[in-house]
Amino acid sequence: MSTIQIKPELLHALTELQGDSFTVAVLTTYYLDRPESPHKSKKPARQFVYRNMVRLMKAGLMEKLPDDGGWPKYQLTQKFRSQYSSIKKPASALSTLPPKAAPPVKALAKAKPKEIPPKKPVAALRERLSKHRSDMLCALGEAEEYESLCKELPEFSEEAQSLYAEARERSALLLGKIKALESLLSSNNLR
Questions:
Q1: Which of 88, 111, 130 is where one domain is finished?
Q2: Is 35 exposed, middle or buried (0-12, 13-18, 19+ CB in 10 A)?
Q3: pLDDT tens digit string along 43-74?
Q4: Mean pLDDT, residues 22-40 taken together
Q5: Taking the CA of residue 117 as centre, how many other CA atoms within 13 Å lie in the half-sphere pointing to its CB?
Q6: φ and ψ at 24, to 5 degrees?
Q7: What is the domain-level CATH number for residue 39?
Q8: Which of 88, 114, 139 is the last residue of a domain?
Q9: Does residue 117 fall inside a structural domain?
Q10: What domain count does the chain have?
Q11: What is the pLDDT of residues 123-158, one digit of tens each?
């Protein structure tokens, strides 16, 4: 059974999420939380993570879950678990190194339960914040379009005006949610 090369910091993030479903944003957050991650900003990290997720799906190591109306969710397959379950190497090791690096792995595995609980809620908050930001941009774009339509097509002005008001109201509500999540994350130094 051939294995594909996975960067150690990404492999560590994936092993932390084994058994859970996750979004691209959640996996990116876990990846960025690794101190040895070469990416420091979100956009290139997200692109790197997504490219690797596509590779993993092509290799049958990850699958996209059925659409539930939210952000697409993914899960590692049994094939991934069988190939990589014993590979929980320190970040400096490659995912294809022989098992002689086993002693540090056991120390890492013992420390793992203490790391995960604080990260999962933070990752969920960050994912929620990301979704609210995206929804707010959508609502603002919608409001701008209604405003533009009111000027261009006065015959639809009355309908567009009420839809414009609804979109603005939605964006204001989302802005409040965003501020609440940002305050929570920054007050607890979770960013």
A1: 88
A2: exposed
A3: 999 999 999 999 999 999 999 988 877 788 99
A4: 88
A5: 3
A6: -60, -40
A7: 1.10.10.10
A8: 88
A9: no
A10: 2
A11: 888 888 888 888 888 888 888 888 888 888 888 888
